[in-house]
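Q: Can I borrow your eye for a moment on a structure tokenisation matter? Would you mind producing a protein record, from residues through to fold? Write it directly below this note and I will take it from there.
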Amino acid sequence: MKSNRSFSAQKKWISATLSLAALMFTAPVHAGDSLTIISPHRKSIQNEYVPAFTAWYKEKYKTDVLVDWIDQGGSNDDVKFIKAKFAATPKTSGIDIFWGGGTTTHAEIASAKLSDKLNLSAPLKKQLPKAIGGSNLSNDEGTYISTALSSFGIFYNIPMLALEKTPAPTTWESLATAQYKDKIILTDSRKSGTASVMNHVILESAGWEKGWELLTAMSGNARQFTASSSDVIKAVVAGDAAATLAIDFYALAKIGDLGADKLGFVLPTGKTIIEGDPVSILKGAPHRQVADRFVEYILSVEGQTILMLKKGDVGGPKIETLARLAVNSDAYKATEGKRVNPLNPNTVKGFLKYDTDKQAAVRHVLDDLIGTQLVDSHKELRAAWSKVIKDGAKPADVKSISKAPVTASELTTLAAKWDNAVFRNEKINEWVKFAQAKYASAGKAK
């Protein structure tokens, strides 16, 4: 009996010890506030803003805040992710903030009724213009507002172009010339919001037919398509390509690091846009008060100067220069003469007026159209374009291989049906056959 009692006592002691050990090694429960952000922003934005926000929050509200950052790989994938979340639980996705990805992304979120109206303080509102460079900073419903601005142009490798005796690009048309054959790298717009916007800008600035000639020639000149708009920047820096279409902050950050004698960036005059990069608070945000405070911070002068100053500058980024344009007018006054990008978009004219709603409405069908004609059929396109160039790039031949299977107005009609998977797949198959047929007959136009 004594032995049994001893064994029983020993079991209790072991059990208690294991329970204590489990308690000791359990992660402590977070006692402060929380915030969940989904964003396609590059890692440097996360690395700068999460520590800056948590420090600001601690000082202002005397409590810690834990930030959970989610990224599914790009703006399109992030939108699909939150839509799936809302499909499972319609009242909330469990995520507070959607930050970045371009205006059309947030217009899509707003159209699907997945975001709530923002609450901005009166003093902050006075620092934020309604529009810059022809682009509105927010929608009429007030469910999103731009936190930064982006311009779109051409990024190029200066020594590589000099070595091959190729003139530096100045317009979209530069990249469509035979001189740039095999010197370009591009991004699949079905994977990249940046590429999607740039394709749309080229079509809008040149017109539908001429725009398709430019996109087709550029793609024929391209060595390959990547899945990310950051991959093409790396390729140009490494000398794997001479030029690419690029968003300003990617290009300017590399120019700042490596020098303006090695890398260049140009905005085609009168043929490009300034676009906002917004933030939205998602419907049913579980930490709404913290989300409001985050939006207030990133739009404040303190939050905005991080975008514009060099790494190490007082009030600037601590890890990496971001080289972005802000939206807060007072932030420009505070950084005059210090900004990485000296451009003040409040004082510059010549940008195209950009219809965000129009681009958002046709975005997915246009991405699929470009995908079938230029990306999925890229091998056939390159062969056809080589034949056209060899024959002197006759206007009739260029027009023949650049013909789109639909008109701009037909594209808008198709967009209304594009959520129908059967219809979409049938149309995509039809477009692939169209592309293969026209490339097979390249050079035969009279």
Observations:
- The CA atoms of residues 75 and 101 lie 5 Å apart.
- The longest strand covers residues 144-157.
- Confidence is low (pLDDT under 50) at residues 1-7, 16-28.
